[in-house]
Amino acid sequence: MDEMRRFVGIDVAKAALDVFIGSAGTAFTVANDEVGIRDLVRQLVPADFVILEATGGLETPVASALAAAGIAVALVNPRQVRDFARATGRLAKTDRLDAEVLARFGEAAPADTTSHRCTSRAQMAWADIESPNQPTEESGSAR
Length: 143
Prior knowledge:
Elements lengths: L6 E6 L3 E6 L4 E6 L2 H10 L5 E5 L6 H9 L3 E5 L1 H10 L7 H14 L7 E3 L2 H6 L17
Parallel strand pairs: 1-4, 4-5
Antiparallel strand pairs: 1-2, 2-3, 5-6
C-alpha cells in the first residue's frame, strides 16, 4: 500500500526548526544543528513533501539533508506564503504558526506556485530562489 503524502511546513530560524505535519496536526521543534536535523529526518518518510521559505541560506543545511534522504523539498517565496496567510486569516505570527501556514500552503498551492521543488543536493545548490530584492537580469536593479 502506498504511503499517504503529508505536507510538512518547517519554519527555519538560526537556532531552531519549528515543524508542523499538516495531516497529523503534529507540531514539534528540533535544534537547527546536525543532531536536530538528523532527528527531523528520522521523523519523516520519503512520501512527505516539505515546504520551507527561502531564508537567505539558513534553510540550506536542512533542505540538503532532507533531499539527501529522498524527501521532496519545496523552497517557496516568503511573500507568497505571507499573502496566503493573510488570505486565510492567519495574522498571528509565531514560529509554530508559521510552520503550520507553510504546511497548509503546500496543501493548497497548485504545483506551479511553489518556487522550486528540490530533490537532490545538486538541485539545492543551483536553486535560483526568487526574492523581491534580487536584481533582475533585464535591469540589473532590485525589484
